[in-house]
């Protein structure tokens, strides 16, 4: 309340209003600082979550590629086995037993 120089000392009502105004300005400044801090923390959290999401998406793409490659190899192996069975001298009855 050091900035009371604007209020004349002879007018107590004006002085009280000036004090109330300064208190409200101080509360406003404190609330604004708190809001600014929370906004900064929120932005930081959002940036961190966005990076984690990006990393997870990349990991999912890698897993999908590995799975696709695995299924291609399994399919190729299955076709190779079928070709070997078809070309083998074993009778068809033995294959389906």
Describe this structure in words.
- Residues 21-66 form a coiled coil.
- Keywords: Coiled coil.
- This protein is mainly α.
- It has one domain (4-95).
- Helices cover 82% and strands 0% of the residues.
- It has 2 helices and no strands.
- The chain has helices at 12-87, 92-95.
- The longest helix has 76 residues, at 12-87.
- The mean pLDDT is 88.
Q: What structural category arises from helix and sheet content?
A: mainly alpha
**Total helical segments:** 2
Number of domains: 1
Q: Span between N and C termini?
A: 98 Å
Which key phrases capture this entry?
2 helices, coiled coil, mainly alpha, 97 residues
Topology at a glance:
Layout (H helix, E strand, L loop, with lengths): L11 H76 L4 H4 L2
Report a brief summary of the structure.
With 97 residues, the protein is mostly helical. It has helices at 12-87, 92-95. It is 82% helix and 0% strand.
